[in-house]
Amino acid sequence: RFVRTRLEDAWRHARAEAWPVAAHYLLYPNPWPKQHQLARRWHAQAAFADLIALGGRLEMRTNWAVYAAEFALALGYWGGPEATVETLPPGAPLSAFERKYRASGHALYRVAAVIPRSFAEFG
Length: 123
Fold this sequence. Notes:
The protein has about 120 residues and is α+β, with helices and mostly antiparallel strands. It has one domain: Rossmann fold (3-Layer(aba) Sandwich), CATH 3.40.50. Helices cover about 30% and strands about 20% of the residues. The chain is built from four helices and four strands, in the order αβαβαβαβ. It has helices at about 5-15, 45-55, 65-75, 95-105; strands at about 25, 55-60, 85, 110-115. The longest helix is centred in the middle third of the chain and has 13 residues, at about 65-75. The mean pLDDT is about 90.
């Protein structure tokens, strides 16, 4: 069954219902590059607390190094596990954006962490 919804609403509902989530993938989110757009980045939104509270494997991929660094710092700020920015090695792309960015010569970055389920009481 396919459900179309805002991701922020899905995270909030999944947290409220204590749904088990094995993994989250944020693939090439809009980096909202202008300074006044910072609050639109995933790691600067209130919904980020719901994402972390769900636990599970979290992986974010981007072609923007600053976004990756901010995302890794935000995990620590919100009390999540320590995460580092890695350069994504060549391999099968997970999305059309990844294929496009790789083909155009962009450096690609990954931030990955495993958030324990016991962390679900966060926030």
